[in-house]
Amino acid sequence: MTQIEVVRGDITKLQVDAIVNAANTSLLGGGGVDGAIHRAAGMELLRACERLGGCLTGSAKVTPGFELPAEWVFHAVGPVWNGGTHGEDTKLEGCYSRCMELAREYDVKSIAFPAISTGVYHFPRQRAARIAVTTVNNQLEASNLERVIFCCFDEMTAEIYTRLLRNHRI
Ligand code: AR6
Question: Which residues are CB-neighbours of 97 under 8 A, at least 6 positions away?
Fold first, then answer.
């Protein structure tokens, strides 16, 4: 049985095998959770990201966590919200799906996700949370994960996830 939790706070502080970053296609850092992860991991993270050659929207690439408590960072690139008719849902699903695949490849037992795309990329929070919970849930059985954390920076996002998880009965 995988333990699913909603944690309100800063993802960079979490003691898990992997944290997921909400990055952009350059993978070279930015604001929001991306900025926080780069600051906490140190300059070596930027050097590792430079070697990855960017990442497509809807996918993710891996680096070590360097100075973070987490061993790995899965850098996922969410879509910019553009009305919902430009494949945004599928691309967001792709981020969570790819991270679940990477969790298997790297034999990760615990992982924390931020609310990808719901900050400066303006994806509607409720819709994004539903995609996150459904996609992760669909791949849980095939995974070795013992613990999944949805890390929410603000109270409203935490409430959305708490309600969704209650209804999902996972
Ligand atoms: N821990 C957990 N969640 C956080 C943290 C944190 N330390 N800081 C912010 N959040 P955003 P996006 C939440 O804007 O929308 C960057 O510049 C935040 O409240 O970080 O995917 C990248 O380089 C929100 O709920 O990511 C890209 O260019 C969620 O994380 C772009 O922003 C995502 O907000 C990506 O935009």
Answer: 135, 139
CA of 31 to the centre of ligand 1 (A): 7
The domain ranges of the chain are 3-167
| Ligand 1 interacting residues, C-beta cut-off 6 A | 10-12, 22-24, 30-34, 36, 78, 114-121, 151, 153-154, 157
Enzyme catalytic residues:
34
Domain 3-167 has CATH 3.30.200.20: no
Check residue 169 and give its pLDDT: 58
Convert the pLDDT of each residue in 37-81 to its tens digit: 999 999 999 999 999 999 999 999 999 999 999 999 999 999 999
Largest CA distance in the chain: 42
The pTM of the full predicted model, rounded to 2 decimals, is 0.98
